[in-house]
Amino acid sequence: MSTVSPPAKPEPVVAPWARPFWDAAAKGQLALQQCEDCSKFIFYPRVACPHCASERIAWRTASGRGTVYSYTVVENNAPSAFIADMPFVVAVIRLEEGVQMLSNIVGCDPDKLRCDMEVVVTFERLNDNFVLPKFRPASNS
Amino acid sequence: MSRTRGKTAIVGIGEIPTGRYPERPAISFALDAARMAIEDAGIGKDEIDFVMPTGALFSGQFNTELVTCRVVEELGLKNVVGNCQVFSGGSSSTNGLRMASALIETGRAEAVLFVHTDKLGTGVSSQGGIDLFSTAGISAEWETPYGQHYSTVAALTTTRYKYETGATDEHLSAVCVSNRKWAELNPNAFFRKPLTLEEVMASKMLSTPLRAKHSNMLLDGGAAFIVTSAERARDLTDTPAYVLGEGGAVTHFAFHQEPDLTRFGWAKAAQQAFGEAGLTPADIDVAEIYDSYPIYQLIAFEELGLCGRGEAGEIFLRGDTWPGGRLPTTTDGGMLSKGHIGAGGSVSLLVEAARQLMGKAGERQAPNARFAVETAVGGTYMDAQVTILGTEIPS
Ligand SMILES: [Zn+2]
Questions:
Q1: pLDDT tens per residue across span B78-101
Q2: pLDDT tier for residue A134 given thresholds of 50, 70 and 90
Q3: A80: which chain B residues are within 8 Å (Cβ-Cβ)?
Q4: In chain A, domain spans
């Protein structure tokens, strides 16, 4: 019997101006842009502030705390590279800094997931090139 | 009165039954649908002076043929000034109608043929379809690496909507049942066997709380419509479907950027469309609501003002949207029962809205259909679009 190995996990296709985000993730830090003119935090990284169009943008280290805006447990029909991971959790996280990001929730019994539950960032190595920020329940910390 | 209300009309429609056609080339769906639309409009083929083939997703090479005028050549259209692809995924119908109307209103075209074909049923494998839709319209940097795909997108909206409104699995499943009741009456629909609430709720879980029968199926198909000026429309037919109002709101590219995952831009789009048409939601006789997953049909129905927030599920459950109900909704069976044919999902709904107003819907004809609303949206529900058509022009 022959087995077909699953395709490699897709790597983030990195925009040049987002490179600092991935470099920070590799060091276990969640980095966000902040506009120096309107003070708003920005995610995902942009070439200019999407609120006021300023180009004066600085990188900050985020608190890593947020809440679950919504979540789903993938049980069937995942993309090829993710079939072996099922069940896994995809979630939209609302970070304390006021931005939203997509991620996975790890280290949580799927039955315990709730909208608006508190989560904290954790880091998982994808491969030699990338570390992905993920989230786990804050109560486990 | 609005500057654009009732200035153009859909005068001809064509559609092939949604299905699995491994032996038929994708171009044939476009040619058949276009020829039906030309015949339905009762115009000569050489009156068509602008062609808008929308995008086909199954093959980049084939799509390039659509871009480079294959439809014009195959049909032998002699007076076409431009062939230009208008493509915004699932909202292509509305954007096509908007562009066609603008060309006609400004005198740049007389008769526009909009045509769709795709072969997502037999042109790609089943797993290939899942993989295609884990990248098409999904951010390659910020979402694909986390396993995002269209089931998770729909599930994320469903989870939050249930949390905020108290909607139940029965409410979501009722959308599938309602749409199937219409598909039973539609010879162009793929799934025509009666479907029960219990069958939907017993189907395989995909991404919680989304089940297999909450999910559309990718199939082959094609449809076309012809737009012309209101004056020319009245020469051609007694039953033009006038374009009364349009509205839209682009809210995101990457799904996680959407500020309100349970509302999107529908309310703003609807306000524009109803304002331009000079109508209110109470005037609507037929609602063709985009339904790639049941949650989006519930949300759009509510945000359009056809009922209040959190009330749509009960309305679908008790049958108000079924054949014979108070507000016939998604009367071709939608993507959930007619089948998902890519950008054609909303092209079918727009063609169905026109068909109902033209009185050509056969067994599923809605009685006294004067005003119809159609919704369409592309990508991960990035650009809520609302179109209102009518058999008469409100003064
Ligand atoms: Zn700013």
A1: 999 999 999 999 999 999 999 999
A2: very high
A3: 127, 130-131
A4: 15-62, 63-141
